[in-house]
Amino acid sequence: MGRPLNPFTRFTPRRRNQTSAIKLYGAIVAQARLPVFYQELGVPDRLEGRFLVLSLHLFAVLHRLKAEGGDALDLPQDLTDRFSTDMETVLRPRDRRR
């Protein structure tokens, strides 16, 4: 009796996690783009340097989510999928994007 009768309710948490992953990934990207890394810390402001800073930020967040456990179990996968999709878009040669 405790389960809802709507068969689609089991999909709702996943959708909420994807929305959370999109917002969290946006925050990670914004943090990784801060000028301090490129102007003051000497990270090259090129594709390789930006990838490195973004990857380090993503690693830190994933490490924290792993430590949290519980409800945060799907979020790391959604976040990783978002990162992969973003990198595929950014790194794919222009002639193959069409």
SSE arrangement:
Layout: H1 12-32, H2 35-40, H3 47-68, H4 74-91
Describe the fold and architecture.
It is built from four helices and no strands. It is mainly alpha-helical and 98 residues long. The protein has one domain. Helix 1 crosses helix 3 (47-68) and helix 1 (12-32) crosses helix 4 (74-91). It is globular. The N and C termini lie far apart (51 Å). 10% of the residues are buried. The model has no long low-confidence stretch (mean pLDDT 82).
Based on the model shown, name its key terms:
mainly alpha, 68% helix
Uncertain residue ranges: none
Number of distinct beta strands? 0
Radius of gyration: 17 Å
Instruction: Give the helix proportion (percent range).
Output: 55-70%
N- to C-terminal distance: 51 Å
Count of discrete structural domains: 1
Tell me the structural class: mainly alpha
Order of helices and strands: HHHH
Shape: globular
Q: Give the quaternary arrangement of the chains.
A: single chain
The whole-number mean of residue pLDDT values reads 82
What percentage of amino acids are in beta strands?
Answer: under 5%
